[in-house]
Design brief:
single chain, alpha+beta, Alpha-Beta Plaits, 5 helices, 17% strand
Length: 189
């Protein structure tokens, strides 16, 4: 039936699985490239193209006699896109700018977010129904969930939006302690 003998089915399943891995890596590589992660993009690209070549070498000579292998190839590609997106969402590479506009508990929200270790700036504004406050901060994408929990807890109807953050520079510098005691002797000039 459909030319699906056991060897063809096993080869098709292998092509499907390798294609999922290959395309998932390609999705993550593309996002890494956009974010400027050169080494990660290089290594993922190397593995991705190696897998792709092995699949192509297995399928091209056989697809004419067994066209069902093309279906496995296509299904692996489509599934790999979805799996790649799910993996990338899970590892959440990069930073986001978070903006929230609310009139309910803005200072309380800002204080709780600051207590979590995030710098947040509060701006005053005017909305359709009167005064509002805008909270703005930059955080790692994987930490965004914690901030959203605070927003939903204190101001469930707040308007908020995130956008990818490109180059991030923080004026904060770690406090350097000057050497004291015997360690200070070598530092004097």
């Amino acid at each position: 039936m459909f030319g699906l003998d056991t060897p063809t089915l096993m080869l098709g399943l292998a092509i499907f699985l390798v294609r999922i891995v290959d395309v998932s890596l390609g999705t993550i590589r593309t996002i890494s490239t956009v974010q400027g992660r050169r080494l990660v993009a290089f290594l993922l690209g190397l593995v991705e193209v190696s897998l792709w070549l092995s699949v192509m070498a297995a399928i091209v000579p056989r697809v004419v006699g067994r066209p069902v292998l093309g279906i496995f190839f296509a299904l692996g590609f489509s599934t790999g896109n979805v799996v790649g997106i799910l993996i990338e969402q899970r590892i959440a590479l990069g930073h986001v700018t978070f903006r929230a506009i609310t009139r309910i508990n803005p200072e309380k929200i800002a204080k709780e977010i600051r207590n979590m270790g995030f710098p947040v700036t509060v701006f005053e504004g005017r909305g359709r129904s009167g005064p509002v406050k805008e909270l703005v901060l930059v955080c790692k994408r994987r930490e965004l969930r914690r901030i959203l929990e605070v927003m939903r807890k204190h101001s469930p109807d707040a308007l908020y939006v995130t956008e990818p953050a490109g180059i991030i520079r923080t004026p904060r510098r770690p406090i350097m302690q000057l050497p004291t005691g015997w360690r200070a002797i070598g530092k004097k000039k």
